[in-house]
Amino acid sequence: MKKITTTLLLAIGLSSFSQQKNYTEQDSLRGSITPERSWWDLNFYNLSVEVKPDEKYISGSNIIRYTVLEEQQRLQVDLQTPLIIEKITQEGKDLKWESNGNAHFVTLKKPQRKGEVNEIKVYYSGHPKEAVRAPWDGGFSWKKDNNGKHFVATSCQGLGASVWWPNKDHMYDEVDSMAINITTPKDLMDVSNGRLLKVVENKDSNTYHWYVSNPINNYGVNINIGDYVHFGEFYNGEKGKLAMDYYVLRDNEEKAKEQFKQAPMMMEALEHWFGPYPFYEDGYKLVEVPYPGMEHQSSVTYGNQFKNGYLGRDVSKTGWGLKFDFILIHESGHEWFANNITYKDIADMWVHEGFTAYSENLYVDYHFGKEAASEYVIGTRGNIQNDKPIIGTYDVNQRGSGDMYSKGANMLHSIRQLVDDDEKWRTILRGLNREFYHQTVTTKQIEEYISNTSGIDLTQFFDQYLRNAKIPMLEYQVNGKQLRFRYTNIVNGFDMPLRLSINGSEDWVYPTSDWKSKSFKKDIQLVNVDKNFYVEYKKI
Ligand SMILES: [Zn+2]
User: Fold this and answer.
1) CB atoms within 10 A of CB 478
2) pLDDT per residue as tens digits for the range 438-450
């Protein structure tokens, strides 16, 4: 399990108003902490899967070890069709279960005593859902490389890890550690999470035994099978010597050796801003896959064609986006925000994507300077839709607006301006990774931590940017030496200060929804709102 701090899930009403979708019973079974989930706490998974690429078929088992929190006899395990459960056992005895779609309710025979550690073993098999557009519409990607060899990968964020293996498919609870044992055809290799302990040779196949010694979220678990070559290095980081290993298709070794020089540069920049890489014990890996990329913990998957930008494109349109490999930096940034600090409910996915989109600008800041970083993050505003709130709907596995990326990053960039002390801001970012180390969190915990450590009450600020789709509008008037101003388009009580430039010199103003005025020494000729704040403005 992960240590869970006690802040309750955020009250529902704030964000759900904008979601028109009708949710089903299956959405609730997938997205809520049901009574059949809440009474037991995950300790350990031992997942064994044989993958047969020729047949697009998998079979295997997962041992689920848990601690009993409350004495209950009915346990929910998740596995999505068309995969089927073949058998479930506890201490060698067969158990019965009832299925409701993808949720399976197991009746345990053995009395479950509080504090006891028990295991069930779930056997399963079938042809898993094939990815349509990985990683967004994920599942199994069954591809071939240029030499005609199988190239196979899993991706399942949002969709759920139960698309390919049986588990407790809710993000609030994580195992403390995990074994992943993947059997592949002889001429291929599997790269999963954590460390490779051993390879066992079978008659017609090999089994790769991987071990993750840290808490891991279930969508972070992955299989990658291909004709891989390996190279690696050691990085001297904040917590000592870190193994950095790279697995790419045989034909791409040369390109990768050049492009992955950015990996230690990433580590240097992000450790500076976020603190030590959170999984030294498991190492860090980049693994080539046949889709753009995903933040699989300690085996970050990469499919960006060994190009800078996002598939060669600058998402900021400023030029700075071509100075680095977007996927390498972004997906690695998730090691801090997604894998170290993990949302309990996907409605709070901005905690992953907002901070990680922001990490791109921190990489630019570290290597190219503050001005370049500002231009980059401001440039990404071109991707913002302001269509609906960033926070989604709780308890039904529903993420919010795609604005969680660029708008989330620009919201954090605005907080940096409010803090107005870069060392303090860095301390806050590092503090988040220490305070919530290896934990699952709610957005409220993150919001309160930033308010408390910055000394600025950001309650309305976060409501504005996370729970409302509107962008604050500063309206102003100039009367000689006097500037009048107010905000519109804001939630009640929103009062973010702004840095302006008046006749070329900087000054702070403190707008609210009421008209206020401020007098200057000379007639006001020129008013500029500091573009680092994410607001709109107009003279009226
Ligand atoms: Zn991301």
Assistant:
1) 17
2) 999 999 999 999 9
